[in-house]
């Protein structure tokens, strides 16, 4: 009888494992997870033991409050910590609401403050092994560094055809508040495939999980793709125009005629001082007391403009100016004609995409744990009141209860300490709009400049109005260039005798010659610069003292 009991032990253990809370899959509408950090996080949250993550997490009060949170305590460190949920949450059915508070107590110039909602990990995975490679279902929260200033929303989705997981990033996400107050971030996913991003309870972004306009890359792959095996035929001619093979250079075409010639009609201006130099030794300059002729060479006074030349038409040897050569024609090129063999720009043929699939709604992965994995240059980042629920009303109640009072208190204290009380309270919304403007695609060339200006305005209240004007100038300048094409190059008035279509042909061929010349000049300049650098290094090693310029004052 005892041996029979022993045979049942493995089955009973397996049954207990299946009944364990960590393996229960429930919908978000059936379960609410909440972490207040009122008690020490140790035991519930496990810090990563990976070597890269040396940042120390602490259980600390928020500045000015009795409310505790999870604190990033050191600067310039990587941090990673994770908590496994008591129940695995399935986001497929009903709504899913993700919400948490974060306070950037020392500001945020470069770092993240987002959460990762991890999917079930592989068998044998341990929380202490959590790192940036740990697979997640959703990543959500603020991130700011350089040109990046956004509230991420990224979801990973498994392609049912290829089996690969793909990250889908929200396009044009809202910007991160730049103050040091407590802010609450909310992501609401609904059964109609919509996701709404709220900051402090106010909707900042609405998107469709299936829309290519809202997520990049799009969840649904294209139906067809270019055939990777298709090759362009060797006889495929993509030239729309070709030089006319029957054209011949006119007999009177002189390719050697210069572009400019001496103006024989020019006359030397009256009063020109032929014997006066344009520059003379500075009469007020004196040799420095510490000048060493042996080390520095013979001292020479620096040059200044000759005052006599300022009153005359000119000084020095007079030479006739040049003018455009009316007989200049330049190199002759055959005119361009339509290519009879032109077939257009070749493209590979389209074939069905083997990874294409259709879905009515995303097949989001279950959420088994919450992780914070960041690299930040600032300390003082405080996480608090992490919530997962299926009811946005519940999320609103938590905001009212845990966040609103803190935020109001912080705002009042900030207004009292501000050098311009109350004046800048309305500017934050303007800054938020400017951050969105900086993310507009046609402003990419000015993005870093605009963000730098905005950050200066946020840090220096007395400069705010000037900053707004500067950003407006950049914006208007860009729009003007888009509308009018920028500054046009001046046109040189030169009379050219050419045959029809000659100009177009010459322009195209001259461009090729110019490009080649530019490449050669760049190459020569690079070689000279390299040679100069090497000589400079050798000189520094050989000479104990840098040689001074003779005309140095």
Strand content: 25-35%
Helical amount among residues, as a percent range?
25-40%
Determine the number of helices (DSSP H or I, runs of at least 4 residues). 8
- What gross morphology would you assign? extended
Structural class: alpha+beta
Task: Let me know the number of strands.
Answer: 26
Q: Main beta sheet, described? A: 10 strands, mixed
Kindly describe this structure.
The protein has eight helices and 26 strands. 24% of the residues are buried. It has helices at residues 2-19, 293-296, 307-311, 392-417, 427-438, 447-459, 464-484, 502-542; strands at 25-27, 33-35, 46-47, 57-61, 68-72, 77-90, 96-104, 110-112, 115-118, 136-145, 148-158, 165-170, 182-189, 194-199, 202-208, 215-216, 224-226, 241-243, 260-262, 279-281, 303-305, 322-324, 336-338, 350-352, 367-376, 381-389. Helix 5 (427-438) runs antiparallel to helix 6 (447-459) and helix 6 (447-459) packs antiparallel against helix 7 (464-484). It starts with a helix and ends in an 11-residue tail after the last helix. Strands 1, 3, 6, 8, 9, 10, 11, 12, 16 and 25 form a ten-stranded mixed beta sheet that branches. Strands 2, 4, 5, 7, 13, 14, 15 and 26 form an eight-stranded antiparallel beta sheet that branches. The chain is of the alpha+beta class and 553 residues long.
